[in-house]
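Data deposition worksheet. Section B asks for the primary sequence of the deposited chain exactly as it was used as input, without tags or linkers unless they were present during the calculation. Section C holds the resulting structure in token form. Section D is free text for depositor observations; keep each observation to a single sentence. Incomplete worksheets are returned to the depositor.
Section A, Depositor: J.P.
Section B:
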Amino acid sequence: MKIGLFDSGLGGLLILKAVTSKLPWYDYEYYGDTQHLPYGDKTEAEIYRLTKQGIQHLFERDCVLIIIACNTASAETLRRLQDEFLPEYYPHRRILGVIVPVVEEVIDSACKKVLLFATKRTVSSGKYHLELGKRNEIDTKIESIATPKVVPLIEEGKIGEAVSHIATHIDKKLATGERIDGVILGCTHYVLLADALQERFGSTFSIFSQHRIIPNKLDTYLQRHPEIEARLTRQGRRNIFLTEHRSDYDRYIATLLEGHFVASN
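Section C:
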């Protein structure tokens, strides 16, 4: 059986690359809903319907564990899928998100003032704050900033503009003397901005990017759940399914996964 990853587009491929670099021996299945990206401007009902459709596809492709590699979908649908969909249809399989691992990392870092950059839906969900509250982490403050222009810029290959868009928000905060201990890149697409932002701001604050967090958290999860890990097959296969073919993704897939994949749509 396989590890599945779900996202609306490019961001999930970046997480897939990071995870397979850390744990290359497992078999992986990726579902990218490129036909409907971005998710950040959709209603909760739309996000749930589209996410469930992708999750169903991955389970039918023999995935025993699925990572929703999308902050918007994690925020809006994960709990409902875990509480309602899994028990009825796939009680012996698991679905994980990407928000809790980041919150845990922020807490472990001892950062007290953190900026969160994310889609409108992720910000409006308040999920990051909710997970902090569940852990009684009242000393850590997260300020959320919705950046809806960033995902379209990244999908269009305008990485420099996307970096500048987020950097402008940070510069304004720093100019007022505001304390910033960390920055959460709360969308998997934003992985592509992490190195450039780190280079621009240096050690001014910590940058929490999910491609650095999720692989280690997944490794730890599998160690804690041998009943899941034992069911995973180990042939190093990666299959990629896109709901709508995009020629620009061919280059990304070949580069990110070094040709070690089967793509379909």
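Section D:
The radius of gyration is 18 Å.
The mean pLDDT is 91.
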